[in-house]
Amino acid sequence: METLRIAWVGRHPLDAGMRAVCPGVAVVPLDPLQVLSFDDVVRLAGFAPEVIVYSDKSGPPPFSGLERYPCLTVFYCVDSHIHAWYPDYAQAFDLCAVSLRDHLPRFVSRLGAERVMWLPPFPRQEDRPKDAPKIHDLLFVGKVDPVLTPGRHAFLAELGRLVPGLCVTRGAYRDLFPTAKLVLNVAEGGDLNFRVFEALACGACLLTPEVGHGQSELFTPGEHLFTYPPMDVRAVAELTAGLLADAPRRERVAAAGEALVRSRHRPEHRAAALVDFIQGHRPFAGLIAARQATAASLFSRVLRPLYLHWAEALHPSPEAAVYLAMGRRSRAAC
Asked: Taking the CB of residue 299, how many other CB atoms lie within 10 A of it?
């Protein structure tokens, strides 16, 4: 298969997987609130790409003139549970890969099924961490803030009263997960998050909420991990008590979960699926031409309202002025 020249814009854990399966990838870092023209991407990548992939940085739209880019454009969308405007923005791209499966209809209704794929999360591409003494009964690693994560904060506070062995901390998950008999995931946004895959790749026995998004199709509850109804404190407490009393079961499920992740859900697996999806749309000229033919409409219907929104949201700041200028372009100029 012909090697693609891809500019991968925005650092992401999938970077290493993409480089492993597609040598023609150049990673273009994206600073917060940075806006890039096509010429900027070419300069930073070191070549004129056949494909630009925007790796979701959970920020404002990062491209100017996107509707006119002369190469294939792909939106790798991760945080659609946070940003309701993502399906609209995706219309300005030729293709879209969506992390959260239950959100696919929002994108398909705008782009069509053939232009959208499901690309689930995965663990970072690292060797298995070393085994460590199990000093924690139940461990949660992540941000807990009464303002930023109020649901998670309240849930863990109540759970701590029922499970005295609960440890809530922050730090390097690869160092911390191996120290726990059980690892807890709390998906406040209802998303299938990366922590599921990272915990399993560390050989952890995982307790995670029933969130949908294909989780029960990727993993079998009771075989690869354990699930609980979202934010159900008593269910977690009961599950924890039963598993703490059954070490063989914990170890068996942890081993099966790790084996499955390493055989099917590594970064290189996701990268290969994405590259196959992109290659399946060769020749790219038809998609590019179709987008460019509707560039004026894309700008006025989709991009201009987003740019003006971000100009207002970021005011007063230099970045606000950039988005205001982008939104004020005449239709003739696009």
From this structure: 24
